[in-house]
Fold this protein.
Amino acid sequence: MNPNATAVGGIYGYSHTCGGYDGGEAEFVRVPFADVGPAITPDWMSDEDALMRTRTPSNRVDKAHNWIDPLIVGAPYLLGGVVAANAVRAVRRRAHKFC
């Protein structure tokens, strides 16, 4: 442990205060000894399909818990799989403007 460290930890896709590591959601991340928590991916599934499989549950939860005001103006600052799906859903729910 470094008492003089400026980073709070190592987090992918955040600024230099969290380690300055690039990517995370949009990149394939290998986790050594990941035998607790992650879902087992079948052998026949490609890495790209497995990555998109992880986005579906969070999108489903988003869909169930979000109510969109018809006069809202939204602006996604990241366009990952979940944000793109939320943008489509906002337009379908007649959000006034989504840019």
